[in-house]
Specification:
Layout (H helix, E strand, L loop, with lengths): L43 H7 E3 L4 E6 L2 E7 L5 H28 L4 H15 L8 H48 L8 H21 L5 H48 L9 H13 L5 H52 L3 H18 L5 H29 L1 H31 L2 H20 L3
Antiparallel strand pairs: 1-2, 2-3
Helix pairs in contact: 2-3, 2-4, 3-4, 4-5, 4-6, 6-7, 6-8, 8-9, 8-10, 9-10, 11-12
Length: 453
């Protein structure tokens, strides 16, 4: 209430109590939990020491050696007027005391305490209150001085935390840029997307939980990170767009192959060669995406299974028809054993030829594996007879016999000559010549024996 408005009937504040009793302080829990109550010391003598009231209700407060008008209280007694403004002082004193208690209990940020002390200092300066305002300001200045070193330490720690945060965010940016710098045409996109997602999650967590960076630094780092993500995202979208086109082309091609394979069903076994050609085309068609590939392959395979099922049924029928043929060929193999026992080669050949003729007349045997096994057993008998025939031919061939006779004659002449040389060497006592003649004679006799001479 201004001192220039004495004619105003009531003050612009709640009405004071009927008696100028000392006012109780508000519960400290509203300001600082569990803080002890602060004695106000607002007695009549204190009020008289720090304040006075003029006849027109103007209230003044003493600050050092000067008096300052703090307001008017025209509709009450002087005690009531002082009590009202003392309560204003008590409110400020309580806040100062609570701030001191927070400092003493520890745990509060020195920077926050200094900031609150500054607000209270401003509130205690030229305050509309009666009390030791200078003392409150002195206490606040003392508190601020005691917090100066802690504030400097906190500022240094905050700077270190900011520097560390910048380094950590820079590391995230560099990792993102390293991903963007790869040859993105050859990467595994699932892995790259996961890596970039982890980096972005780390970036968001850092923003939410880390210290606040300056706007310029934060924006600069974010721009680098965002540009790296944009580069990777652009390449990824281009890759998947191209992949979609490739998948669509493969899907269309495989759909046509499925339709052609399904159209082979009426041909049954005869459709298998065409189906195998379609299978080669399927392998060359490329990927159409997992879901599309699986669905199309199921249809394609079903079409092939129908053809091969028809072949299996035909093979079963042929095998059933081949049972008597197999028995007949096994009987012929038993007869063919006599070929090896026949000493006369011509009769053995005639016997085998008759068996071969009957073998062919029986016709094809199924399954093919069974036919090959029977053919192999007959081929062994054929090869054995052929070997006998070759030996006989070599022995009875006229040209061979003529060459053998000529060789025998030459060997006989050589033997006769060597016998004479051996006799002469023995008679002469020439042991060396005798040994050479004896060795040569032994060799010629061996050759003659081999020729049957």
């Amino acid at each position: 209430m201004s001192a220039t408005e004495p004619s105003k009937p009531t003050p612009p504040v709640p009405a004071p109590p009927a008696k100028p009793l000392p006012r109780k302080l508000p519960t400290p829990a509203a300001v600082a939990p569990a803080a002890p109550a602060v004695p106000t010391g607002s007695s009549s003598s204190d009020a008289a020491e720090w304040g006075r009231v003029s006849e027109d209700g103007t209230v003044e407060v003493r600050e050092n050696d000067t008096w300052r008008v703090v307001g008017q209280y025209p509709d009450g007694t002087p005690d009531e007027a002082l009590a009202y403004f003392v309560r204003k002082y008590d409110d400020i004193a309580f806040k100062v005391h609570a701030l001191e208690q927070r400092h003493q209990s520890g745990g509060a940020s020195a920077g926050d305490l200094v900031k609150q002390a500054g607000h209270l200092l401003a509130e205690a300066t030229d305050a509309a209150a009666v009390g030791d305002l200078a003392g409150l300001r002195e206490r606040l200045n003392t508190l601020t001085s005691s917090l100066s070193e802690a504030t400097a330490q906190e500022a240094q720690q905050a700077k270190e935390l900011v520097d560390k945060a910048i380094a950590e965010r820079t590391a995230l940016v560099e990792r993102a840029e390293a991903i963007a710098a790869r040859d993105l045409s050859k990467v595994q996109w699932k892995q790259v997307t996961a890596e970039l997602g982890e980096l972005f999650d780390a970036w968001q967590a850092h923003q939410q939980n880390g210290p606040r960076l300056s706007k310029s630094v934060s924006q600069q780092l974010w721009k680098r990170f965002r540009d790296a993500r944009a580069t990777v995202d652009k390449a990824r979208r281009a890759f998947y767009s191209e992949l979609d086109d490739t998948h669509k082309s493969a899907r269309d091609a495989k759909t046509r192959l499925v339709e052609r394979a399904e159209a082979l069903a009426p041909r049954g076994v005869d459709g298998i060669p065409a189906y195998r050609t379609l299978l080669d085309e399927w392998k060359a068609a490329g990927r159409a995406g997992r879901k599309a590939d699986d669905a199309l392959w199921a249809r394609f395979k079903a079409a092939g299974d129908a053809l091969y099922s028809a072949r299996a049924e035909q093979a079963a029928a042929e095998e059933a028809d081949s049972a008597p043929k197999i028995e007949a060929r096994q009987a012929l193999l038993e007869e063919a054993k006599a070929v090896a026992d026949e000493p006369n080669i011509k009769r053995a050949r005639a016997l085998l030829t008759g068996i071969q003729r009957q073998w062919d007349e029986i016709g094809r045997v199924f399954p093919r594996e069974k036919e090959r096994a029977l053919d192999d057993r007959l081929r062994v008998i054929e090869q054995a007879l052929k070997a006998r025939e070759e030996v006989d031919w070599k022995k009875n061939n006229p040209e061979t016999k003529a060459r053998a006779n000529d060789m025998s004659s030459q060997l006989l002449e050589a033997i006769e000559k060597l016998e004479s040389e051996l006799a002469a060497a023995e008679k002469a006592g020439d042991k060396k010549a005798a040994k050479e003649a004896a060795d040569a004679l032994e060799a010629r006799r061996t050759w003659l024996s081999a020729l049957g001479g």
